[in-house]
UniProtKB/TrEMBL annotation, chains A, B:
Residue intervals passing through the bilayer: 69-86, 143-159, 171-195, 207-232, 252-268, 280-302, 373-392, 413-430, 436-454, 466-498
Protein name (Swiss-Prot/TrEMBL): STAS domain-containing protein
Residue intervals of the STAS domain: 522-645
Species of provenance: Eruca vesicaria subsp. sativa
Swiss-Prot/TrEMBL keywords: Membrane, Sulfate transport, Symport, Transmembrane, Transmembrane helix, Transport
One Pfam family in the UniProt entry: Sulfate_transp
Gene Ontology terms, MF aspect: symporter activity
GO CC annotations, alphabetized: membrane
Protein's UniProt keywords contain Transport: yes
């Protein structure tokens, strides 16, 4: 099959009757095998593709030893990249943004810890150590680190299913730290083993649905604080929570409801203002702390008049106590701790990476996924030894950080310093902080997580993605948090498999006067060519679809023969398979091609393959199918196949 | 973007320096949207593609009512298709082949029942009712129906893990019939719900490995019978079986070993002869029965001299007793029965369908997968009520049936009649049949299942398929039968996902003097075009790869810019993405394209999409990305894109 130039007349005369006789010179190109590679080389390339798609060693090439050491340090500790150019102007910006996020982080920290059924102080501990560690290891400039609502909720719901946080608070705390340790270990391992791509399996539709479902659950949980209910269900699902709300109507306290609703309206209004005008970000950033101060004062003033409003109570002063002695690696609850760790780890990682990438993209810098995973992972591992629970980059606080003008990770150091001062001196001030204000703060934060616009867009563009989103939403709401997530991931994976199991096949025709072959259904200009049936397969050919494709192609052939007979057209002689979109093939696929050729041959039909991609060509070659197809069984383009075969038939005196 | 004809000079001047200035008329074609369809229409088409790819109602169109009824009956009971044309000549062939397979089926039935830890008589029952039912419902002409080794082994190993067949034989028998019922129910449901494609997930490499592994296990189990060991492990894995063989060396009986080896050699030799010369099929077909007769006689003659050789003992005379009262649908073992039913159901279905297709393809007739599933399913459901355990089409007996000249399913009726006679009159003759001969028959049958040639071919053509095969083999041999199967299926599915997660991207160049664009690495004739970077993505763009592809394309761009700088070439201006092989896209993929365009724009680079397929084009349109790409952002072919953009640049006075 070398080069050959054929003069072909009337090569593209479609049977619409409008064909004109022309002369065209068509050069026939042979189909090349890809450059030869050993199995080891292929494995190496595949390995690099899977684990090192960013080519992390690229920057180290052609560098002196000294530079290599500096680059190595910089890649381990991004602080070395920006640290040397740090100046007073940057510092001023970072102090402003750091203080702003601190005013948000302190009330949120206390609230989210309650969401995870943990003592409020743990929320503050978790806003002190992790930001410090992230500022050294992290590569995002805008990520504001601390506890987040989703991970807190998931940890709370999963752990409290087995251990009661009120009856056995020490064991519960131990489990929380142990889960945090495993979350960190899992995150750091994903980064170290460069398996970060696994979090891509949580697709955006899954996350939109899951987050919205979790936000609804969290909001419903806040009814406890906002209505002043004392006896509340420990369950998370929609139905038990609602029945718990209404069966305990006697416990509703009007003082709590009035005050709670008042502050909720203030918080929602300030949030709305800041969303409308991003420049006024400080209004929504300051309002939680302001609400905490005002509500605490109010409760303090009326403390002798009513006992209907519950408040936090005593909080210990002082820095994070060490907690490495509270981790445990044996016992009945170890499996639960590992499971909780992995799920909260994946979720917090996904949030952290997504937030980091969002703001990096806005300011046009790179956030390396695998490195971020290690940073977040180490942060949680160290956190678990210093009384912190799972932390990551929070979307709402990072947005405030960005809008407040944060320039580097120093804003996280400022945040940590402010929390430090609070822990050392200000804890007694929170004694009379009412629980209702924490509920209102959480509610305001999580309402923003229900992204109905994104869901609507999914509905418009891709119904299946919308379906995945709904599976995640209702799965979380009605079944359980981990199962809802599992259902949504399975649905997304099944979609991929279904696409391969039942691939599209298209019938192609020639666009008159060109060498372009396109779908007959889609392009009206395209028309069939006498004697040929041109089919394009739009998927790899694998064991899951090889039988289907074989049957489908035979059915196309039967249908075409019927059509030809009805129209008294010239007989079908050749099936051309355009393999351009067949990106891969396995042994079952090759066998199906063999079988297809055999069955077509029995009907005196020729099978021709066009433009197989490199890896497919290689396997076709190895399995000797190309020899069996014969000299005129493989072409580079459909046009060349049509031209060459037509001229051969003409030479043999066939019509 | 209507039609436009541009006169472009020097449009394809590769930077190799060999370019010649030419004049080419390039017509620009617009990219069409596919014909508009509502969501319902799309769902309907998708539904038909998944569940009715064979268009089963096609034959009913344009028929009279009377014909429709006849066609309907024929499609439910294939016996109506061939029944009316049946004649004496066909009958003669069927009697010969039916008697031949009966001589094989009787000893094998008894042996396989022992493999499933069931009373030998159940094997004969299972060779009587199921062939009768299959002859009415089945569409294969050559399938010989009865118990098979793999399904027997799997049922035996799964059930005996929970219930001992020696200590609680009644419960064990009940479980076996219940599993058979569920196997049939599952098989029939797959067919009725047209979910038959699910068995395609058991790929050929998986089956080759699994079958070989199971065959090794079965062979090792036969050491019990061949060595005359009395106390044998109930486990199936390699290590416990081997240790059981050698720790019970005191029980080895030399009489059994000598006689067993003698018959084994005879059986293997006759098998070898028949494989060499298919015409002598009757030698291997007759030898098991002959061996049974001779060995029974021998044992009968020496019955007073030695007791070292164990034999079957008393077998009840008479037809299949009803067993519907032995099915049970509640209780602790129900889950086990369902699980065993599903796994044996899938395995026996896969074997039956594969065998049916193999012989149908040799004689060029069609076997409809879904209909076969219903036939096999009903056969097992009825079987479970008439004291039969799981049956399907056996490969070895079907091959004998084919070689013996079977013409229709009547050979199965002849087989059943012969078994009937045996059951009614000949059972006492099997009293002294030694267990060692059953072991030798099983061993001879399963050795043929180890298809090392297929494994070697997998190794040559597709290393990954070979890996899957080995996973199945060692999984079955060392872990357990269902887990080994699960591991192999997971590995094959992960391969599909991995291919999508890390798709290939290729850099394209122009083959000089043509409109063909092909991989630069593969085609030496192809060369780059000034100012363009042409990339082809070889996979759907989904959530699992959208981030990767975005980063990968940006890396291609960086590398190309470095290359251009080093060679002092003209600056890069445009990235062309050839979407021909992107067979599908989801919302994450679309967002990645948006983000890619945004980031390229920041580097003053244009993004152009070429030839998106119908469904992709539709989603691009709905998400408004096409508007955002601008007028010159979408072309039908790479050639047109290059030509049009070059001429635009020239018109604007750019180099």
């Amino acid at each position: 099959m070398g080069h050959a130039t054929n003069r072909v007349e009337d090569m593209a005369s479609p049977n619409t009757g409008t064909a004109t006789t022309r002369e065209t010179i068509v050069e026939i190109h042979s189909v090349c095998l890809p450059p030869k590679k050993t199995t080891f080389q292929k494995l190496k390339k595949r390995f690099a593709d899977v684990f090192f798609p960013d080519d992390p060693l690229e920057r180290f090439r052609n560098q002196t030893w000294r530079n290599k050491v500096i680059l190595g340090l910089q890649s381990l500790f991004p602080i070395f990249i920006w640290g040397s150019q740090y100046d007073l102007k940057l510092f001023r910006s970072d102090v402003v943004s750091g203080l702003t996020i601190a005013s948000l982080a302190i009330p949120q920290g206390i609230s989210y810890a309650k969401l995870a059924n943990l003592p409020p102080i743990v929320g503050l501990y978790s806003s002190f150590v992790p930001p410090l560690i992230y500022s050294i290891l992290g590569s995002s400039k805008h990520l504001a680190v601390g506890p987040v609502s989703i991970a807190s909720l998931v940890m709370g719901s999963m752990l409290s299913e087995s251990v009661s946080p009120t009856q056995d608070p020490i064991l519960y705390l131990k489990l929380a730290f142990t889960s945090t340790f495993f979350a960190g270990l899992f995150q750091a391992s994903l980064g170290l083993l460069r398996l970060g791509f696994l979090i891509d399996f949580l697709s955006k539709p899954t996350l939109v649905g899951f987050t919205a479902g979790a936000a609804v659950i969290v909001s419903l949980q806040q009814l406890k604080g906002l209505l002043g209910i004392v006896h509340f269900t420990g369950k998370m699902q929609f139905i038990p929570v609602m029945s718990s709300v209404f069966s305990n109507r006697s416990e509703w306290s009007w003082e709590t409801i009035v005050m709670g609703l008042g502050f909720l309206i203030i918080l929602l209004t300030t949030r709305h203002i800041s969303m409308r005008k991003p420049k006024l970000f400080w209004i929504s950033a300051a309002s939680p702390l302001a609400s905490v101060v005002i509500s605490t004062l109010l409760v303090f003033l009326i403390r002798n008049k009513t006992h209907a409003i519950s408040f936090i109570g005593h909080l210990p002063k002082g820095l994070n106590p060490p907690s490495s002695n509270m981790l445990y690696f044996s016992g009945t609850h170890l499996a639960l701790a590992i499971k909780t760790g992995i799920i909260t780890g994946v979720l917090s990682l996904t949030e952290g990476i997504a937030v980091g990438r969002t703001f990096a993209s806005l300011k046009n810098y790179q956030v390396n996924g695998n490195k971020e995973m290690m940073a977040i992972g180490f942060m949680n591992m160290i956190g678990s030894c210093t009384s912190c629970y799972v932390t990551t980059g929070s979307f709402s606080r990072s947005a405030v950080n960005y809008n407040a003008g944060a320039k580097t990770a120093v804003s996280n150091i400022v945040l940590a310093s402010t929390v430090l001062v609070t822990l050392l001196f200000l804890m007694p001030l929170f004694h009379y902080t009412p629980n209702l204000i924490l509920a209102a703060i959480i509610l305001t934060a999580v309402i923003g997580l229900i992204d109905y616009q994104a869901a609507y867009k999914l509905y418009k563009v891709d119904k299946f993605d919308f379906f995945t989103c709904m599976c995640a939403f209702f799965g979380v709401l009605l079944v359980s948090v981990p199962l809802g997530l599992a259902i949504a991931v399975s649905v997304s994976v099944i979609k991929i498999l279904l696409h391969v199991t039942r691939p599209n096949t298209l019938e192609f025709g020639n666009i008159h006067g060109t060498q372009i072959y396109q779908s007959l259904k889609r392009y009206r200009e395209a028309s069939r060519i006498h004697g040929f049936l041109i089919l394009a397969v739009e998927s790899p050919i694998y064991f899951v679809n090889s039988t289907y494709l074989q049957e489908r192609i035979l059915r196309w052939t039967r249908e075409e023969e019927t059509r030809v007979k009805e129209n008294n057209g010239s007989t079908l002689k050749c099936i051309i398979l355009d393999m351009t979109a067949v990106s891969s093939i396995d042994t079952s696929g090759i066998e199906a091609l063999f079988e297809l050729r055999r069955r077509l041959e029995k009907q005196s039909l020729q099978l021709v393959l066009v433009n197989p991609v490199g890896s497919v060509m290689e396997k076709l070659h190895k399995s000797k199918i190309i020899e069996s197809l014969g000299l005129s069984g493989l072409y580079l383009t459909v046009g060349e196949a049509v031209a060459d075969l037509s001229s051969t038939w003409k030479a043999h005196g066939q019509p």
